[in-house]
Specification:
The chain is an alpha+beta fold. It contains 15 helices and 16 strands. It has three domains: 141 residues, Beta-Lactamase (2-Layer Sandwich), CATH 3.30.450; 125 residues, Beta-Lactamase; 156 residues, Reverse transcriptase/Diguanylate cyclase domain (Alpha-Beta Plaits, 2-Layer Sandwich). It starts with 10 loop residues before the first helix and ends with a strand.
Length: 435
Amino acid sequence: MMDKALEQYDIQDIMELLRDNVAIVLIADTEVNKYRALIRNNKYADFLEETGSYEDLIHTLWFHISGSNEKISDEYSAFVSYYGKFKGKYSRKIKVFIDEGDTPTVMQMTVYPIKDTSKYVYVMDELYDEYVQDHMTTGKVNTTIQNTFLFSMYVDLVSDTTSSISVTEVSEEVINADIKYSDWRLMTVNMIWPEDQKQFLKITDPDYLRKHLARGRTTSFDCQMQNLEGKFIWVKLIFSRAMTKSEEDFRFVFMVQNIHESSVELFSELQKYERLAQYDTLTELLNQGSIKTEIINGVERNHRGGEDVSIMMLDLDYFKKVNDTYGHAAGDVVLKSLGNLLKEFIADEDVSIGRWGGEEFVVVYNGKSGDDLYNIADDLRKKVETTEFPKIGHVTCSIGVTQIKDDDSFEEAFDRMDKAMYLSKENGRNTVTLV
């Protein structure tokens, strides 16, 4: 177009200017799910087909993870159809990947609805070096926020609408989408960890929110949720009710916060403390409180369903002499070695093994009669007798066995097992007694 006075330019000149310089102009129709490109200048001819599916176009333009050409998971793709409908003129920055490289091209996209139709005109043009550098710098400043808050939107329960949707993993820009809250809720539940879905549906239920959340108050729920890559991470779902003037207003801000790293660290610490609370530190077997619980569970299991449950107590013979002769450090080595022997010898998934205290060990065997456990216990006795323990050589043990009865309490079953073990001691040690 020639350089001439302002008065000499007409609309055809301007249209020619746009045709030669704008990157992309296309028209789309949501009703038939189709678009047609009118202008594709330079490299954009390869980036965008001349015609194609409108949903595919939306997916290509902004449904990839922010700053990368990695596509979002199939579950999130269910939202694509909601993101291409506009109630008025709409403009935003988008990042697209023109080739196979890792660097996105920043574009300004403006959408013009054609009045009284389902059609839109898209005009897109590339933003060049200085703006892109500024845009990237701004993005870096917001990195911490983007990594923490993955999603936010405004909800009006009265009109069942959502607005001001922001998916920071896709873009720092607010996304235009006409999604009913009821639809969003039933689609989003599919991204929640199956065991957490019932609780998600409960706290996001409109009636629940109306009843339990006063104006200006916030509630939250921690659960696992898929991110855009399809991986489950720990998040905090936050609902905050707006402080409006009327009790009849039910407007909320909903946010999803990434708490994965802190949650994993917390669970790791909790597991450490849980193990300390449940296990004997020397032998790494269940401690007295935990093995007692397993005996009680066995009694209840027998009472409920009549399942055979048998228990035994093993006590090392003359262990005081071991400590007096070789020292308590050597005695601890023996106890730890015996614990390992028990775990290897009784390799059954339905068995609980614990240290009752000192040199006494208790085993709870589900699905075994007293006679069955007697035979196992005698084989165990022989194994202990023939094992050479570090520093001290050989030791023997005495074992008492009993089967839990239908009318047993914990105390009755335990006392009978304890009595059986002492009978083994009285009968010369290195023996098994069934009572």
